[in-house]
Structures are given as structure tokens and as C-alpha cells.
Amino acid sequence: MWQEYPLIKVELRALEDFLESSFSSKRNRLDAISRGVLFAGGKRIRPAFTILCAMCGKYDRERILPLAACVETLHTATLVHDDIIDDADLRRGAPTVVREQGADIAVFTGDYLLAKALVFFLKGGLEDIDLGQIAAAIEAMCKGEADQFFDRGHIPDFRRYLGRIMKKTALLFAASCTLGAHAAGCDQSVVREARRFGLYYGCAFQIADDLLDVSSERHVEGKPVMHDIKEGVFTLPVLLAAARNPETADIFRSVGKKGAVASEVLETLRATGAIDASLEIKERYRKKALSHLSRLPQGENTEILKAFVHRI
Amino acid sequence: MWQEYPLIKVELRALEDFLESSFSSKRNRLDAISRGVLFAGGKRIRPAFTILCAMCGKYDRERILPLAACVETLHTATLVHDDIIDDADLRRGAPTVVREQGADIAVFTGDYLLAKALVFFLKGGLEDIDLGQIAAAIEAMCKGEADQFFDRGHIPDFRRYLGRIMKKTALLFAASCTLGAHAAGCDQSVVREARRFGLYYGCAFQIADDLLDVSSERHVEGKPVMHDIKEGVFTLPVLLAAARNPETADIFRSVGKKGAVASEVLETLRATGAIDASLEIKERYRKKALSHLSRLPQGENTEILKAFVHRI
Questions:
Q1: How many angstroms separate the CA atoms of B208 and B279, rounded?
Q2: Which residues of chain B have pLDDT under 50?
Q3: N or C: which end of chain B has fewer CB within 10 A?
Q4: ipTM of the complex
Q5: Across the interface, do A128 and B128 touch by the CB < 8 Å criterion?
Q6: How does pLDDT run across B187-216, given as a tens digit for each residue?
Q7: Chain B residues with CB-CB distance to A under 8 A?
Q8: What CATH superfamily classification does A6-309 receive?
């Protein structure tokens, strides 16, 4: 995905080397397990954002790469823990840690990755304010996941849904951008725009992800579909459909109990126009992201970000 | 336990208030769940060490309490995650998070507590070097738990056992002491002695805990006995017994398969003199702790620590 942009491709290659050498202990089994999930083909969006936002200021690879590694490692930690909750079989196309090693090791691998993320953060030599961002992002991710868990079976309103995806997803994107811009010595106003860019991109990203879950009856990009609905986790398309036609709520709620089938859910979402309405909302957040992106100092780096945002 | 020492009692009371107000959100279910485990009657040893070591320097409650809260919250996070692994029913006499809320919420509650620990750390306004201690302690705890997990069924040698308990337990005690002394502006040599005190205390503490597991046929202090052996986790008494009489190894290994019973294990440990030998080693580490403690600037605080160490 980043292959066509030499500017970022080179840095991400250096990031792979950094991560490789940071999880290379032969004696530490957690390193081997961490490598398995770190190098299973993640898209490296968050670290790429850190790097590209840092290019708005004085780019210093020695400082920025550890921060890029920090956000990617943190993200990977949450994936490992999320997979325990979802009891997932596959992640990035490979068997999950929980499936291969059991929940016990998956818990510690996630914790270990969190600790390593802190170690990388320190290597970036940043300030308290940035650690505050990281801590707040982790805290928010936990809250978002807990909200989602306790909301199971309930269709949230838009406000609650938005709060959930901000916490679950968008704040880490925001932190990824902020860390880069701040470490590169950008002005406060630039750091703020970078943060908002990441935040709104994160919202659009999660809405797209949620749409993917209901977009087809079959697996898409290696992910199982209708997984959320089956678990009683209701996202944007469902809440919009239920708002437009309250009678449809029962259809969605019955999926987990093997009542309605995937085709019926799809049909309902299409009939109420909920898919198109979700796409529109996603588009709105994408535009917000682009608008903040346009207020950053423009260069090849922001062009890459722009091209990337257009791909959601 | 701290009741007889007004100097620390007052500070720990303030710590309770700090923790209470830090996990007080009515809307955040993770706060309520965290409170359940934070206030289930933990002994507060680690934060007490932070506070008492800080009293070797310029004690500033505003700075020290958040650090004390940091180490206690971190410790609690590891308990919540450990209970998932052990599938434990009780912790501090109350039902565990995993038992009451399920593994999903237990994973996030632990992560949430980790994030809060970072937030508290920041409130203490410490430096990178201290965050490095925290990160290293978390990293080590994960490695120690993973070592223990992968070693199941194998009787470790003393060196490996010592490495495991250092990582699992002693490094967090060491960090608790270091943070306090460092934040109170103590000389590097004092910080170093405080660290060693914590490290050796932690070793003695874990050996005592491991002895508790094999000390009786019945529950002790609300903990199930022979739990480790049943899980194939072999600690100091077992490795000493097996070293003295290699034929006993089969007895220990068969416990998990419902071969040997608790009484037989106890009898074997006593017959080989492994219990007494373990007590001697514990005593050695306690003395090491006391020796480093005696090199700290002496005062009422170190007297309290001394009295406390004598209680292991």
C-alpha cells in the first residue's frame, strides 16, 4: 500500500528493522510470539501517520522511529487482547495468539507488548505531555471496549456509537499523529491539526470497518462477516436502520440467537437505506480529516496522507 | 498491619482517598470493577515501600502519593490478569474479576489499571529513568509469568527459579522503592540501596509465598494450597527436594495427574528437609534486604521497614 511512495517506504523499511531487532531475543519466548503477530502483515497505518506527520517538522529518524514503533506495538497489544475477547481464529491472515498459545499466553503477550511500547516511547525522548496522550489512548481503548461489551444486545444511539469508536479506535490514530508532529518540533497549532486529522480519520476508518462487517454474506479480506451482529454488538448501519424503521430492531437482535440470517440482515440494511447513509457519514468524517490535513504545512508527506485518506 | 505506625498509617489513609477519587466515575463501569479489586483488602506493601523510602529524602506528599498509587495500581493490574491465567475464584478474599465479570472484562480491566498506573506516574512528575523502571518491571513480570508457564512440568534449577521470582515479583518491589527514593531527591547511592532492599525483600516475599503453597493440606489465608504443584509449577521447596533426592521428582510431577496427594507431597518435602532449607534461603534474602536497609539514612521510616521485614 505504501510501496508507491518512496518517502514513506524507506522509513517503514527502517521501522521493520527496528522492530525486528527489538524482538529478537532467542531465549525470550514472548519475543518469538510477539514477532509472529507483529510481522503478520499489518498495514502500519498508525506508524506511517506518526512518520508522515513528523515530516511536517524537523524529521529526525532516530527520534521518530521509536515512536512509530511505540504506536504500532501498542496497537498490536490491543489486537492480541481483543482476539482473546472475540475468541478469534485469524488475525492478519495468521492464527491468533490466543488460538495458537492459549488465553494465558495471549494475556501476557499483550501486556509484554504494552511494556515494550513504553520502552520505545522512552527511546523517542518525548515529554510527559506525550506520555499522557499514550496513557489516555490506552485508557480510552479499554473504556471503549468495555462500553461495547456492556452494550451488547442494545442498539446505541449515534452519540454513544461515536463515543465508542472515538475511544476504541480514533484516539490512538490521533495520538499517533500528535506524537510525530510534537517530536518533530512543530508549532502547537500544527500539532493540533495533526491530532484532529488523526481523530477524524480514525472515525472514518472504524465506520468503514463496521460497514465491512455487514457488507457481504461471505468473508471479506480474511475477516468473518456479521461477527459483530452475532455477538450483539450493533454498529452504525444497524443503528441507522433501526432509527429509520424501529421494527427492524428485532431482526438484528435475533441474529445471535440464530433467528435472522445474514441475507435477511443485508436485505434489511439495504431496504432502509442504512448502508448508503453510513457511507455518507463515513464520507463526512473523511472530509473532516482531509480538511484538517490541508491545514498542515503542505509537502510530499501530506500528499501521501491525502492519497491514503482517499482510499478508505 | 500498618496500624501501629502512625507515620505510615496517615499516608496510606491519604493513598486510599487518592485511589478512591481516581476511580470514582459513576458512568465508567471499569472504575466500579477496578474499585472492587483495589479495595478488597490488599496489604499495600508496595506503596508503603514507596512512601517509606521517599521519607529518606525530602518527602512531598503531592508527588509521592501518585507514585504510590502507580505501583499499587500496577500490582493490581497484574493480579487481575494473573487470575485469568489461574482461573482463580478468590482474590483478597473476594470473588475475582474473571469469576464475576468473565475473562473479557478481566483483560480490559487489567489493561485499564495499567493505563491508570501510567496516568498516576505522570502526576508524580518523574523523569524518564523512572518510567524506564516501570516499563522494565512490567516487561519482566510478563517474562517471568511466561517462563513459569512454559516451564510447567519441569523442575527448574535454583538459578532459573531465582530469575523467575526476580522477574515475577522482586523487580516491582525494587521499582517501588526506587521511585520513592528518587522522587524525594535522595542521592544516587541511597536510591541504589533502596532498590536493592526492595529487590531482596521481593525475593524473600516470593519464597515465603511459595512456601505457603506447600505449607499445609488445607487453605491458608484464603489461598488454595498445592495450587502451583497441581498446575505443574515447581518452586523452591520442590526443586530442593528433587535435588536432594531425585527419586522424589516423580511424586511432584504426578500431583497434577491426581497421583500423589497433598499429604504425600508434604511428607516428601519434610523428609528431604526441603522445607527447612527453603526457610533458610528465605532467611538469607531477608538478611540481605535488612543489610541494604541499614545503609539507608536511618529514621522512624526505616524502623518501620525493619519491623515489617521481620514479619515475613
A1: 8
A2: none
A3: N
A4: 0.91
A5: no
A6: 999 999 999 999 999 999 999 999 998 886
A7: 28-30, 78, 81, 84-85, 103-105, 107-112, 114-116, 118-119, 121-122, 125, 128, 131-132, 134-136, 138-139, 141-143, 145-147, 149-150
A8: Farnesyl Diphosphate Synthase (1.10.600.10)
Q: Where are the beta strands (DSSP E) in B197-279?
A: none
Residue type, A210: D
Closest Cβ–Cβ partner in B103, B112, B136 for A142 = B112
CA-nearest residue to A124 within chain B is B128
pLDDT at A178 over 90: yes
What integer is the mean pLDDT of A281-309? 97
Top mean-pLDDT range of A260-264, A296-300, B250-254: A296-300
| Domain positions in chain A | 6-309
Residue to substitute from B114, B133, B164, B172, interface A, most A β-carbons within 10 A: B114
Specify the pTM. Answer: 0.93
Helix (H, G, I), strand (E, B) or coil at B223: strand
Cβ contacts below 8 Å, chain A against chain B, sum to 126
Name the pLDDT band for A25 (thresholds 50, 70, 90). Answer: very high
